[in-house]
Amino acid sequence: MIPSIHKRGSKTIGLIRYLFGPGTHEEHIDPHLVAAFDPLTPDPGRDLSATYEQLQRLLDQPVNALPKNRRPDKHVWHISVRASPEDPVLSDEDWAAIARRTVAATGIAPEGDEQACRWAAVRHADDHIHIIATLVRDDGRRPRLHNEARRAQTEARRIEADYGLRRIAPGDGTAAKRPTSVERHKAERRGQDRTSRELLRERVHRALSGAMSEVEFFDRLAAEGVRIKKRIAPSGDVLGYSVAMVGDRNADQEPIWFSGSKLAPDLSLPRIRNRFAGASDMPEPPAALERSGASAPVRARHFAAKATDWVLASMASDDDSAAAAQLIGVGEVLDALAQTSLGPTQAELREAARHFERATRSHIRAKNEEMYALRRAANQIVHSGLALGRGQDGAATALVLDVMFLAVITAARWHAARGHAQQAEAAQRAADRLRTAYQATAAGPLAAMRAYGQRLPASARSRHAATIRAVLPHLADRLDVEPGRDALTAVLDQAERAGHDTAALLTQAASSRELDSAESISEVLVWRLHHLGYITPPAPGPQRPRSSPATVPAPAAAVRLETPRPRRR
């Protein structure tokens, strides 16, 4: 049950005509009153003798009884209360009771108050009602409406419980403002899949991901194809900014502007500047990555995986301010990955980033310096260009998606433990999208590694099996039956050929985080080993592989592990 308070208006008759009219797309079906302040209130929807003007005069009577200089300029109050799509269709009697509870909770008409504001509830669809009220009580005083939106939400949670409806996660006041019905209808007319407000919020977040300075942020925002208007002080300093979609205009043919703070609480210019404050302190990628010879997209994704490992350690600590900052960084990395991926993976990543955006905001104050590593990683990803999704690009993308999935799941649990229901739900939705993106991205590299592992000589397979059993005796039986076992054998073989001590490398990979909860232990170890092969120097004097060179491809580069390719017959 979602109550939405709309902007206050000055013309009661205009809102009445809309509520009882056909709607902008003929979507209003059988408009009629379900409840009102007085049971004898005329219903223009069902009573042929009743008119809109009669209802307007009745609602406006306390307003018109005041001297003109005491009448409020915006005296029309409007709230819609909408059921969730999966909820059963409620009767008029149910909606009438919900309307009375809503006006009582918000302060429009407290229960038992005979001098309260006048109101009427209109139903013109199965799943929602609209309540119109005038903001002068019968005794001439104004209603007390402090925090009426929050009180409406609280009452909605009680209504859900009483009627057995879908339970909506309670908010904490940090969510971005929902689009209005007018904005939604306009988006439909313009052929947009979302409203201008939502599209602009997404584009501002994309421009912000990994930006090192205000100049870079505005340059990237302009490249997103949106209109930008800066608010300039007499000194020449920029005080704020607004954005508009190209072609989105009001009735006067003027652009419809949204300030950053109207898009989301964390997108005001002062909040954005806080992210830039430590740009000079951001860590650089490990030197081993720079020496690896890998492409820029591959290096950027390995650095992001390393930075996300730091996040997981931080989330396990008791420093909530550090964790809150890391969540902002995770959001920036998701935005960066969504910008630089191709095909179906990009669509899933954009949806993941859009959902996770809600999980980045809470009332916990963030320590900005804690997000610097992730912001550097996002910057590296954006500036490294597109990842092609195959070969080393595909393996590196699968690697970072694997660790990002774990980070987002950890974020969902972190929020849930602190009672942040909306954020926890948003993080879980992002995780679902990330899982799909990972599966699509990892399928090719894992298939190549499995094929490589299956073609190894029996002596090599036995040697690597003995290493696995020696390092992970408690997991060896489970690993033996996993489909990814051959891929794990392959990456161990590549590590050996690159000169690594495979037992030491496998020990390091297994000890970085717990493994028992993994859906596929072998896949987790494959990506951890793949990552360690990039950032860990091999032992002096590379070991000579003990398998036949006629059977196994040529050795990999000295530092990095290759994505194995099956040998051609």
Topology readout:
Blueprint: E1 2-5, H1 12-20, E2 32-36, H2 52-64, E3 76-82, H3 92-106, E4 119-125, E5 128-134, H4 148-163, H5 181-190, H6 196-208, H7 214-223, E6 226-232, E7 238-245, E8 258-259, H8 260-263, H9 269-276, H10 287-291, H11 296-315, H12 320-340, H13 343-359, H14 372-384, H15 391-417, H16 421-455, H17 458-471, H18 476-480, H19 485-497, H20 502-511, H21 521-535
Antiparallel strand pairs: 1-3, 2-4, 3-5, 4-5, 6-7, 7-8
Helix pairs in contact: 1-2, 3-4, 6-7, 11-12, 11-14, 11-15, 12-13, 12-14, 13-16, 15-16, 15-21, 16-19, 17-20, 19-21, 20-21
Residues in helices, as a percent range: 40-55%
CATH-scheme architecture of the largest domain: 2-Layer Sandwich
Order of helices and strands: EHEHEHEEHHHHEEEHHHHHHHHHHHHHH
Main sheet record: 5 strands, antiparallel
What would your notes on this structure say?
The protein is of the alpha+beta class and 569 residues long. It folds into three domains: 162 residues, BirA Bifunctional Protein, domain 2, CATH 3.30.930; 96 residues, no CATH class; 162 residues, no CATH class. It is 51% helix and 8% strand. The protein has 21 helices and eight strands. A five-stranded antiparallel beta sheet has the order 1-3-5-4-2, sandwiched between helices. The C terminus is likely disordered.
Structure keywords:
alpha+beta; 3 domains; 5-stranded antiparallel β-sheet; 3-stranded antiparallel β-sheet; 21 helices; 8 strands; 51% helix; disordered C terminus
